[in-house]
Amino acid sequence: MIWFILVFVLSVVHSAKDQEKQPNIIYILSDDLGHADVGFTGGKIETPNLDRLAKEGVMLKQHYVQPICSPTRSALMSGRYPIHTGFQHSVIHPGEPWGLHLDETIIPQILKEYNYSTHAVGKWHLGMHKWSYTPAQRGFDDFFGYYLGSQNYDTHIRGGGYDLRSDYWDENGKFVDNVRYDLKGQYSTELYTQRMVDLISSKKAKTNPFFIYMAYQNVHAPHMVPQRYIDQYSTHIKDKQEQTFAAMVSAMDEGIGNITAALETAGLADNTIIVFSSDNGANVGCVGHVTASNYPYRGGKRSIYEGGIRSPSFVWARGRLAPASSDAMIHVTDWLPTFWGLASLQGELKPNNPITTKPLDGFNQWSVISENKPAERTEILLNIDPYPLGSGHPLPCYSIRWKEWKLILGSGGPPNGWYPAPGVRDENRTCSCNMPVEGYVELYNIEMDPYERRNVSDRYPHLVKKLTHKLMAYNETAVPPGNMKHDPASSPKNFNHTWMPWMGNDEEVGESMRKNLMELEEYNWVQMEVEELPDPCYQIMSNNVDL
Which of 294, 311, 356, 484 has a CA that sits 20 to 30 A from residue 503's CA? Predict the structure, then answer.
């Protein structure tokens, strides 16, 4: 009994000391991972390492992201809604000369002012037309990964261009971009995991804390994985494509297990916080053969329904967090202020230099996560996209979550159905880009109806109007979408079949870019006239009716 008390007291002292130290922070972002694609949410795919971390940490049951890739990454890095950074519509496609504006202060730039080393691994997808938009020139000490998205996992090629590199600053303060042609043919997930293990091992003798942004490529298309991962599913999953997808999840899970093992070996696990999430829901629409699932949530990638934006997420921090689950509303914009609070020991430490950011949309959620304190956040702007989205919503989409209520104006999808996990067949398992739109005004009580099966907009017109006014207020603060037309000068053929920044760092607009800007309004953004919007949406947004 005396020994038990002594051990308990020592553990409390140990925990208290950890709380006084700046923690190491690792953010692991999966790509296109659905709610039902991991074990800790009840999925059938084997993810023992993620399951263990989720069980030992705090599961975030209402963690929201954006419906697609680049918008989520911009919100994470800047702490600001996509309408405030120009990322409210679509992603950065190869050869498009735009990115997260350089006047946005992002996570690594803040943490460096508190003596953190900062590292990025995996997918960037926030701009690469100029070197100044690439991660190692935006506050990260180094970067190993790819600038674009949706590349081949083995050849590291997208659209005829190679894209795998090690970027860093040498001992003379010179920036080095080392394109890793030598790694062609090696599976990217294993390369990124090994980079993480090497980084962590190098920190063993270091005293300053570190931040690592680990953005896995898994499980984004193209679906590829070494055979040894597929073999473990050969007996109980018969469909070959579903085997491959499950194996991709397992490959990532194995990598995360290797990362946590490296933390243990280096003696760093007790002072490291790991956050895990996906960038959007599973891609269950317009993919031909559905292998992923957000079930029982509705919709998926590209849609504003819960299946597209509610991410499987948790926070692990041994010694700082007791095992729990949290129902608090948390948005991806919250991580910048939360990490800022952790790095500054909640304001006890002052930065080396003053830090200036644009107005943040995120909140410091650490006390909510660690102490279950009431959340300051009561609403989330889910998005305001004024244009139709290819393979997504055919109309503008406006959506907000306020307390238990969620309003969608325009179209929330497709995908807008319910997609049971692979192997489960029923009449709801559909995959079509042409599914009928639910309606132009949708209101759901997410606490009572989290699967969005009962549109109650006709029963609560006062709430529809209240939330519409909130959307209108947000829309007044929006900047125009930053999307730009493809620039032919970006062709990898001009750079030895390699994707490279093609505009240098010259702030002057070149002749091709000047032409690009003049054509912008004629390109994709033919803004719909208000009168052309579907009638219910028009009536509410123009405030012509008393609901």
Answer: 356
Question: How far is 306 from 34, CA to CA, in rounded Å?
Answer: 11
**Its pTM surpasses 0.70:** yes
The whole-angstrom separation of Cα 92 and Cα 102 is 16
Show Cβ contacts of residue 468 under 8 Å, excluding neighbours closer than 6 positions: 407, 409, 540, 541, 543
Which letter does DSSP use for residue 480 in this model? P
Distance CA 247, CA 266 (A): 29
State residue 34's pLDDT score: 96
Cα-based angle 288, 294, 295 (whole degrees, multiple of 5): 105
Four-residue CA torsion sign, 217, 218, 220, 224: positive
d(CA 104, CA 107): 10
* CA-based nearest residue to 334, from 379, 299, 387, 395: 379
Residue 60 to residue 310: CA distance in whole angstroms: 10
Question: Any residues with CB less than 8 A from the CB of 257 and at least 6 apart, and which?
Answer: 48, 49
Helix (H) or strand (E) segment spanning residue 158:
strand 157-158
User: Which residues have a Cβ under 8 Å from the Cβ of 219 and sit 6 or more positions away?
Assistant: 30, 31, 32, 33, 37, 245, 248, 249, 252, 292
pLDDT at 524 over 80: no
Distances (CA, A) of 88 to 115, 302, 377: 33, 12, 21
For residues 366 and 535, what is the distance between their CA atoms, to the nearest angstrom? Answer: 43
DSSP 413: -
Neighbouring-strand partners of residue 402 = 379, 405
d(Cα 59, Cα 322) in Å, to the nearest integer? 11
Q: Which amino acid is at 512?
A: S
What average pLDDT does this structure show over 169-187? 96
What is the identity of the amino acid at 448?
M
pLDDT score recorded for residue 147 = 98
Q: What amino acid positions are annotated as catalytic residues?
A: 69, 125
pLDDT in tens, 281-324: 999 865 567 789 999 999 999 999 999 999 999 999 998 999 99
End-to-end CA distance of the chain: 67
Helix H segments across 126-232? 188-202, 227-231
SS3 59: strand
Angle subtended by helix axes 335-343 and 69-78, to nearest 10 = 30
To the nearest 10 degrees (0 to 180), the angle between helices 48-56 and 240-265 is 50
